[in-house]
Write a structure and sequence with these properties.
It holds the Pfam family SLFN-g3_helicase. The protein has about 550 residues and is an alpha/beta fold. The protein contains 19 helices and 21 strands. The protein is globular, with a radius of gyration of 27 Å. The model has no long low-confidence stretch (mean pLDDT about 90).
Length: about 550
């Protein structure tokens, strides 16, 4: 939200909502604190309508104390009115939900001020370091400041020297006064932040992962703490949809356990990718899914066994689910199971099996669910949902595509389409994500070119820009469903596919959910699909 109002005027407006003293000019600091503390509930609703949303009493009290500190440090009234407006209060970076207390942009430098109540110096330093991670991509340098009136701690982080310095009140006032500040609204500021700068994959950004150049959400940190700290629980489950940060969380947990000198084995639900092979060179013990039975037979060798992408276990192949449960029950080893029941790629990989496994873990140990999506923006997520199921019984809201994150290319013939795909694969920074073919029987998908990476080779990975081919193997079919709430019949269009050993719709879903930023559809000789996809977007 925008702060156009300067700090002093804003505090005056807050206090003036108390009718008893709205006309007084001789209000003492203690009276202000008392008003804000005792009448927060009645003051805030009116204040929120103006765009200023203090979360609680502590937050508004800390702001008031900060304003009074600036006065004590010598900031004159004229300087308050001229130099403390145009801050963003509580600005949140879209998609990743990172919040900043006070943020203002400038020609010479930006200012980020964190206002802390009862805290510690270490907590202040940690917060400043995190803010640097999120703001260092901006073209203008940022001054990172933390103010805690309650413990009289005023710190600045200097990234170029990787050090923290204590600031005097005069120095803080100077930083505010000497900034040649710029005025932006929230929408303009949103455009400064590129989500891909903050997304780290342990497979696709190995160096960043190894160098700890990432941060987890508070919820993820709670999960790490519960799993890595001593506990009588020996089984943990982590469940989440694509883009919720499962892989980063699981590999971070592994790294933390290794730092505690624990022996950890990871079983990955596919063949190993290049990133995992690089991690193995740095001490990680990672096995492909085909080795799971051997790992379980030797569970005694490890303190922890992590099964990542566990939804890809198959009961028909050596009773993998049964043997996993037996190993959990019979060994002293602790198990961490990570899964997403919808991300299956084989007709023998049953979502019901992974759901039963998760329920078993919930009964025997502790489970966690990841819900916040970071990798794909809300519009992209909604588009992918609509692509697979289009409601015909109501008018849909078109997907906003003003930034052209969804691109469509149509080719009448396969030769020109394949040539384009091959050229983009070789000569661009786009990743072509293709489909895994049946090795033994002829299928309709065999006409698709073999360019790019296959669905089975990219499990758990993510890419900035992906190209996904579609042809006559994909089509829509109308279906009538019964609304559970009203009992009404409703018509929907479901995306269906030709028969294939590996279900094409599951592979398409896997490929689409690998993107961080953009999807390009290369549609070959299928005008029906072409028109349907175009019809979901407000621009293309």
């Amino acid at each position: 939200m925008d702060i156009i109002m300067d700090f002093k005027t804003m505090l005056s407006y807050l206090v003036s909502q108390d009718d008893e003293i709205s006309l007084r000019n001789d209000i003492k600091h203690e009276e202000v604190y008392e008003i804000l503390e005792n009448k927060f509930a009645s003051i805030m609703p009116k204040f929120k309508t103006k765009g200023y949303k203090f979360k609680d009493t502590t937050e508004v009290l800390t702001f008031a104390k900060f304003v009074f500190l600036l006065q004590e440090w010598g900031l004159k009234d004229i300087q308050f009115y001229k130099n403390t407006n145009s801050f963003l209060f509580g600005y949140i970076i879209p998609q990743i939900n990172k919040e900043f207390d006070l943020l203002r942009f400038g020609e010479n430098y930006n200012i980020s001020i964190e206002l802390k109540s009862k805290t510690t110096v270490e907590a202040q330093k940690e917060q400043l370091c995190k803010n640097y991670f999120y703001l260092n991509f901006l073209s203008t340098k940022t001054r990172y400041i933390s103010i805690s009136p309650d413990i009289s701690s005023y710190i600045e982080y200097i990234p170029s020297e990787n050090k923290y310095v204590n600031l005097s009140g005069t120095e803080i006032c100077d930083i505010i006064i000497k900034q040649v500040f710029l005025e932006y609204n929230t929408k303009e500021v949103d455009s400064f932040f590129d989500i891909k700068n903050y997304l780290v994959s342990p497979f696709n950004d190995v160096e960043k992962f190894l160098d700890d150049k990432y941060f987890l959400t508070p919820h993820q940190n709670q999960i790490v703490k519960k799993i890595t700290e001593p506990s009588d629980k020996k089984t943990f489950g982590i469940k989440g949809n694509p883009g919720t940060g499962k892989s980063l969380l699981v590999y971070h947990i592994c790294k933390k356990l290794m730092e505690k000198n624990k022996k950890v084995a990871i079983v990955h639900g596919a063949n190993l990718n290049n990133g995992q092979e690089r991690l193995a060179l740095h001490g990680f013990t990672i096995f492909p899914i085909r080795s799971i039975l051997s790992v379980l037979d030797n569970a005694w060798k490890y303190d922890y066994i992590i099964v990542d992408e566990a939804q890809r276990l198959r009961q028909d192949k050596g009773e993998q689910y049964t043997k996993l449960v037996k190993a959990i029950e019979s060994s002293q080893t602790k198990f961490i199971i990570s899964l997403d029941g919808k991300q299956t790629l084989d007709k023998y990989e049953k979502e019901e099996n992974s759901n039963k496994l998760f329920e078993y873990i919930k009964d025997k140990g502790e489970t966690f669910s990841l819900k916040d999506k970071f990798r794909t923006n809300p519009e992209m997520s909604r588009f992918i949902q609509l692509l697979f199921k289009i409601p015909m019984y109501k008018k849909i809201d078109l997907i906003s595509n003003v930034d052209h994150n969804i691109i469509i290319k149509y080719f009448d013939n396969r030769e020109s389409g394949n040539k384009y795909i091959s050229d983009m694969d070789s000569n661009s920074n786009w990743e072509v994500l293709n489909y895994t073919k049946d090795r033994y029987n002829q299928r309709g998908i065999d006409n698709m070119c073999d360019t790019g990476l296959t669905s089975h080779s990219i499990i758990g990975q993510e890419f900035d820009k992906v190209i996904v081919p579609l042809d006559s193997n994909f089509f829509y079919k109308e279906q009538t469903i019964i609304d559970r709430n009203t009992g009404e019949n409703k018509i929907i269009k479901l995306l269906e596919t030709t028969d294939n050993y590996y279900p094409l719709e599951k592979m398409l879903y896997q490929n689409l959910t690998r993107t961080r930023e953009k999807i390009e559809f290369v549609i070959i000789g299928n005008r029906s699909i072409f028109n349907e996809i175009c019809g979901l977007l407000d621009s293309f």
